[in-house]
Design goal:
Pfam families: YdjC. The protein is an alpha/beta fold. The chain has 11 helices and 9 strands. It is globular, with a radius of gyration of 18 Å.
Length: about 270
């Protein structure tokens, strides 16, 4: 019996090279879909390129509140134009500097750019550096989609018994996501869970074993996040994850990955739900 899992590529729109790689993998049937960053100047062109895949792949919104330029700057959230670090935003003490209205206004702007460019609501929503788990973003989701069709949300990871960097990352993300699945499902959202795909991105060789564990262990409908991409000059100015994106693309496009799926009796879920 075939089991299907979701593979969602983050960061569509981050740079042309990242978008190229994601579109190629969607075309090969190696991704369920992608989530889009709408805050960059190239977004409208990127949106035009992904329109042919609407309905065939899940096209979501990747909420961005850290490290990148803000659409709504200058504001209390980004007085100099740059969004704060995750450490500042997630810290209970430091985030008091950021007003709820400023955060919600930025999220409104990103959502509006998605809808205006694609003419539809996102199929799913997640967050750059998992910011959708933050209480202020949970509140925005509930208000923005009250009384309307709700997108799927990326849910929380399951704590592992491992040790080292990966186990610490999983524990940190799980702590940020505490209560998220339960509270958002109570508000009428569906959560894609459990979340897999967390590893030490400083070690690109760890990606293939991480995929293998997910293919062998994720339950039906579980979600694996990934970050494939081709490195270009624009990416180099926006994000430190570079070589690892190429490694992820190479593996997901490979015959080895296809053989792995076949051997495990696993398919990649397509479509929007």
């Amino acid at each position: 019996m075939t089991r299907s899992i979701r593979l969602i590529a983050d960061d569509y729109g981050l740079s042309p090279g990242v978008s190229d790689a994601i579109l190629d993998l969607i075309g090969r049937g190696r991704l369920t879909g992608t989530s889009c960053m709408t805050g960059f100047p190239e977004w409208e062109q990127a949106a035009e390129r992904i329109k042919p895949f609407v309905g065939r792949a899940a096209i979501g919104l990747h909420l961005t509140l850290t490290d990148q330029p803000a659409l709504t700057a200058p504001s209390g959230l980004a007085p100099q134009g740059q969004l704060p670090s995750l450490g500042e935003l997630a810290s209970p003490l430091k985030r008091r500097r950021f007003g709820t209205i400023d955060i919600h206004t930025e999220l409104d702007a990103q959502h509006r750019r998605f809808v205006e460019a694609l003419g539809r609501e996102p199929d799913s929503i997640d967050g750059h550096q998992h910011v959708h788990f933050l209480p202020v973003v949970r509140d925005w989701l509930k208000m923005r989609f009250a009384g309307s069709q709700r997108p799927m949300l990326r849910g929380a990871p399951v704590l592992s018994r491992g040790v080292g960097v990966t186990a610490l990352k999983v524990a940190t993300i799980a702590a940020l996501a505490r209560g998220f699945d339960r509270s958002m499902q109570a508000a009428g959202f569906s959560a894609m869970k459990p979340l897999a795909g967390i590893y030490d991105w400083r070690r690109p060789s760890d990606f293939a074993p991480t995929v293998r564990r997910a293919v062998e262990g994720l339950p039906e409908g579980g979600v694996f996040m990934c970050h494939p991409g081709h490195v270009d000059a624009i990416l180099a100015t926006r994000d430190p994850m570079q070589a690892v994106r190429r490694a992820e693309y190479d593996f997901l496009a490979s015959e080895e990955f296809g053989t792995m799926l076949d051997a495990a009796g696993v398919s990649i879920q397509g479509g929007t739900r």
